[in-house]
C-alpha cells in the first residue's frame, strides 16, 4: 500500500480498514471503520474529497477520483465490484456497483440500488433506490427483489470477513519480517 499526502491533506485510514497490496491512496480521502480496499485500487483525493463510509468494500483494480469542487461520496455498507471507475458521484448506502461499471460526475446511485456489471451511469443520472439498472447507458430494468437483496448482503458480509482475514495475514507477515 502507498499512502501520500497532497498539499497538506493526509488520507484518514482507521486501523480497522484492510488495504490490499499495491493500492494507492492520496490526499483528501476519509475511509470509514471496517471498510476494505482490495488489491491494486487507486483512490485519489487530489482534486476534491473522497469520502468512504463504514463497511464499504472496494474491490480489486477500482479507480476513484473527482472533478474540482465535486467530491466522491460512498455511504455505508456499499459494495464496489472489481475494476469499477467512480468519478465525483454519490453512492447511497447498501448499493452495489457491478464489476467493470463506470459511474460519472454528479450521478447518484440510490440506497440499496444494484448496478449491473459493465454498466455506464452517465453524468447527472439518478438511479432510484432499490432498483436494478443495467446497460450503456444504464437504464432501470426492475425493482430489487428479495434474491438480489440477499445476494447483496451476502457479498457485503463475506467481503467484511475476508478483509479481516487478510488484515490479520498482513499483521502476521509484518511480524515475520521483523
Automatic annotation (TrEMBL):
It comes from the Bacteria. Transmembrane segments: none annotated. PANTHER family: DYNACTIN SUBUNIT P25, GAMMA CARBONIC ANHYDRASE-LIKE 1, MITOCHONDRIAL-RELATED. This is Gamma carbonic anhydrase family protein. It comes from Siminovitchia sediminis.
Amino acid at each position: 500500500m502507498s499512502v501520500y499526502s497532497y498539499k497538506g491533506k493526509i488520507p484518514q485510514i482507521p486501523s480497522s480498514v484492510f488495504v490490499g497490496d499495491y493500492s494507492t491512496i492520496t490526499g483528501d480521502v476519509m475511509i470509514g471503520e471496517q471498510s476494505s480496499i482490495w488489491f491494486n485500487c487507486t483512490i485519489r483525493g487530489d482534486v476534491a474529497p473522497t469520502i468512504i463510509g463504514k463497511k464499504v468494500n472496494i474491490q480489486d483494480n477500482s479507480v476513484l477520483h473527482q472533478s474540482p469542487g465535486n467530491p466522491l461520496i460512498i455511504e455505508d455498507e456499499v459494495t464496489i465490484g472489481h475494476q469499477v471507475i467512480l468519478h465525483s458521484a454519490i453512492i447511497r448506502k447498501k448499493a452495489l456497483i457491478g464489476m467493470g461499471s463506470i459511474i460519472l460526475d454528479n450521478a447518484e446511485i440510490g440506497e440499496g440500488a444494484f448496478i449491473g456489471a459493465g454498466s455506464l451511469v452517465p453524468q447527472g443520472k439518478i438511479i432510484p433506490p432499490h432498483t436494478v439498472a443495467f446497460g450503456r447507458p444504464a437504464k432501470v430494468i426492475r425493482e430489487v427483489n428479495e434474491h438480489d437483496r440477499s445476494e447483496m448482503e451476502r457479498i457485503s458480509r463475506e467481503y467484511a470477513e475476508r478483509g479481516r482475514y487478510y488484515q490479520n495475514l498482513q499483521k502476521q507477515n509484518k511480524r515475520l519480517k521483523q
